């Protein structure tokens, strides 16, 4: 009998992972000690309190839980939480005051070359870098709130920084005050979904050399320079909001050297430029709303084979602008609120083509201070005659089937 | 002085032209606001009214009115009233009626459809532009006794401010585009009341483009509250200076 009991106990101890509790009123008061005691598969449950333990390294496959939001303080000296094991779960902490160093990039939470890590429901406040995935795959970063107080680009790191990773899921995070809200470099097959990135010093989302990713239903608002997507192919940008990115070099969405991508169902409102395209190929821009921007779209002459169709252009100062006379892109079935044509056969499509590029847009492109004369009667006259007989603006810059009514987007 | 203003004001009201002006402004504004569900088109219409119609009507009407009431002015001069008082009352009576016409015709639809910073800016600027061009009318009518010449001067000055000036600025911008002339250009706009008015409204209306792209010059000057104050003061100067010159001329004029 006894032997059976021992065997049962042995198995149950193998099956049941231990819960190691840490807290001011518990036997174990130090997180580091708890992690040292834990075995793979255990749970370390940290109770409410302030923990100043320097750099905490998780090097075992454990579940690291915070109960009632314990605070991990880096005292502006250390990286707070370093994850050096696969399949670690970090949840429910408040991570504050990571150190500042330009060589090592200390973070709130950093994952070193590991896979299947889950970081969720944490609050990160006043860290240099927020959450950093270095060479990881299949990690999930979900429902975290990251706040920093950066004033200039040099003195603050990125919110969620992902480098050389694969199959990440960045979901439902709120990021503000960092350098770049979300930063992707060499990250593939990943999704960025339902995040809110506001008031970051540089970009809301910074995206480079990251192929086959999608970002969906995010809000990028009031960032220093909007969103930049560069040197990438096969990106899907669906249903995002790009709002209030104002400034000399601020864009709702800045595209540089992008190919074979989709921009569908987004809303660009109150940006200096809605979309700025440079050297992009084969992009489909469809069913977007461009509203109250300075420039709806700036398509430089280096772009080719892009298709712009079924978009609404409403109340932009300029709908389209370009810098040359070469046009290799097609415009079809868009609604332009500046269209003044007619529709005799009542099929909803205007009978005269629309030239979205105004003379004045070309003039200001050549000489920005000409903006001083915008909406002056003189300019309006020039614009009107240019629209009838294009001489300065390229005459193949045209939407042959402009819609009479805005699309319900 | 109040009595003279009242006489002139009532005289202008009896004159059906200002009434017609009010009604036309009203029809234009209400219909353009009612045309679409967003107020953008209506605002643009009123912008064009402010930059084009208001100056024309103000300067022409005031000039012609002054010439036609020359006998009335002579009659007043035979009374023991100071010349300054007569001229000032004429100015106040005329400008009051023009401002009232603008306020009722375009201001009320503005307040109904666009009761935000854009609408209020347009309202204030429109009233100021009325005043400026009434003052210019006083100047042009005092420059010469000849009625047709005086009206000619009025039309010319309107044409200059509404059209030619912008053409000249555009020309300068492109001729000197290799030089850092942005700041100088901001100063040049002070030379035309219509341009001052237009830029003030644009900063509210096309904020995304104006505050963004050419950021430097606009934000640093017109965008700040100091710049706003300065450009309003400049507009006020455009009222005071022409009127003051005409007043001096009127005082010393041998009638």
UniProtKB/TrEMBL annotation, chain A:
Keywords: Signal
Residues of the signal peptide: 1-17
Alphabetized InterPro entries for the sequence: NosD_copper_fam (IPR026464), NosD_dom (IPR007742), Para_beta_helix_rpt-2 (IPR022441), PbH1 (IPR006626), Pectin_lyas_fold (IPR012334), Pectin_lyase_fold/virulence (IPR011050)
Gene3D superfamilies: Single-stranded right-handed beta-helix, Pectin lyase-like
Pfam entry (one): NosD
SUPFAM superfamilies, per the entry: Pectin lyase-like
Ranges where the Periplasmic copper-binding protein NosD beta helix domain occurs: 155-341
Top-rank taxon, per record: Bacteria
Protein name: Nitrous oxide reductase family maturation protein NosD
Gene name, Swiss-Prot/TrEMBL: nosD
TrEMBL record, chain B:
Membrane-spanning ranges: 12-33, 45-67, 87-112, 118-139, 151-176, 228-248
GO cellular component: plasma membrane
Claim: Lipid biosynthesis is one of the keywords in the record: no
Pfam family, one: ABC2_membrane_2
Keyword Transmembrane helix attached: yes
Keyword line: Membrane, Transmembrane, Transmembrane helix
GO molecular function per UniProt: ABC-type transporter activity
Protein name, per record: ABC transporter permease
Source organism of the structure: Flavobacterium rhamnosiphilum
């Amino acid at each position: 009998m006894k032997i059976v009991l021992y065997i049962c106990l042995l198995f149950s101890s193998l099956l049941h992972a231990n819960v190691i509790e840490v807290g001011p009123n518990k036997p174990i008061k130090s997180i580091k000690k708890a992690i040292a005691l834990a075995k793979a598969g255990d749970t370390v449950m940290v109770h409410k309190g302030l923990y100043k333990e320097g750099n905490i390294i998780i090097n075992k496959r454990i579940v690291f839980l915070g109960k009632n939001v314990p605070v991990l303080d880096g005292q502006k000296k250390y990286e707070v939480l370093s994850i050096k094991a696969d399949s670690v779960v970090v949840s429910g902490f408040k991570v504050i005051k990571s150190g500042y160093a330009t060589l090592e990039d200390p973070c709130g939470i950093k994952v070193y070359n590991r896979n299947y890590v889950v970081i969720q429901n944490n609050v990160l406040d006043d860290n240099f870098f927020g959450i950093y995935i270095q060479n990881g795959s299949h990690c999930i970063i979900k429902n975290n709130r990251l706040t920093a107080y950066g004033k200039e680009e040099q003195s603050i790191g990125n919110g969620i920084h992902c480098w050389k990773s694969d199959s990440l899921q960045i979901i439902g995070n709120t990021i503000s005050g960092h350098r770049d809200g979300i930063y992707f470099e060499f990250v593939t097959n990943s999704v960025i979904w339902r995040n809110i990135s506001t008031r970051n010093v540089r970009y809301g989302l910074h995206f480079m050399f990251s192929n086959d990713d999608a970002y969906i239903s995010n809000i990028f608002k009031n960032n220093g320079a909007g969103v930049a997507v560069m040197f990438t192919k096969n990106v899907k940008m669906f249903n995002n909001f790009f709002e209030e990115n104002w400034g000399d070099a601020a864009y709702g969405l800045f595209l540089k050297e992008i190919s074979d991508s989709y921009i569908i169902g987004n809303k660009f409102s109150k940006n200096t430029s809605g979309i700025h395209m440079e050297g992009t190929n084969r992009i489909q821009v469809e069913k977007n709303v461009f509203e109250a921007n300075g420039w709806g779209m700036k398509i430089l002459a280096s772009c080719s084979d892009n298709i712009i169709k079924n978009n609404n252009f409403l109340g932009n100062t300029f709908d389209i602008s370009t810098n040359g006379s070469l046009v290799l892109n097609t415009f079809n079935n868009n609604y332009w609120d500046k269209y003044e044509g007619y529709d005799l056969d009542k099929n909803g499509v205007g009978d005269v083509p629309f030239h979205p590029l105004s003379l004045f847009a070309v003039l200001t492109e050549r000489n920005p201070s000409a903006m001083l004369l915008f909406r002056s009667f003189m300019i309006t006259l020039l614009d009107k005659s240019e629209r009838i007989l294009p001489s300065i603006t390229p005459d193949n810059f045209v939407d042959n089937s402009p819609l009479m009514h805005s699309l319900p987007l | 002085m109040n009595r003279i203003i009242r006489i002139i004001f009532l005289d202008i009201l009896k004159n059906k032209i200002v009434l017609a002006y009010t009604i036309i402004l009203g029809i234009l504004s209400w219909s353009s606001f009612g045309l679409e569900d967003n107020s953008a088109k209506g605002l643009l219409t009123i912008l064009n009214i402010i930059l084009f119609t208001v100056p024309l009507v103000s300067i022409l009407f005031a000039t012609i009115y002054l010439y036609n009431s020359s006998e009335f002015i002579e009659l007043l001069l035979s009374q023991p009233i100071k010349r300054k008082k007569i001229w000032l009352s004429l100015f106040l009576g005329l400008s009051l009626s023009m401002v009232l016409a603008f306020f009722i015709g375009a201001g009320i639809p503005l307040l109904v459809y666009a009761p935000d910073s854009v609408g209020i800016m347009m309202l204030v600027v429109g009233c100021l532009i009325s005043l400026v061009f009434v003052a210019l009318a006083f100047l042009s009518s005092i420059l010469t006794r000849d009625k047709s010449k005086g009206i000619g001067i009025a039309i010319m000055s309107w044409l200059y401010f509404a059209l030619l000036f912008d053409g000249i600025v555009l020309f300068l911008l492109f001729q000197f585009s290799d030089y850092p002339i942005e700041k100088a250009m901001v100063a040049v706009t002070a030379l035309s009341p219509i341009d001052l008015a237009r830029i003030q409204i644009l900063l509210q209306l096309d904020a995304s483009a104006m505050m963004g792209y050419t950021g430097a010059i606009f934000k640093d000057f017109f965008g700040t509250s100091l710049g706003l104050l300065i450009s309003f003061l400049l507009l006020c100067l455009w009222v005071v200076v022409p009127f003051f010159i005409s007043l001096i001329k009127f005082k010393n004029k041998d009638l």
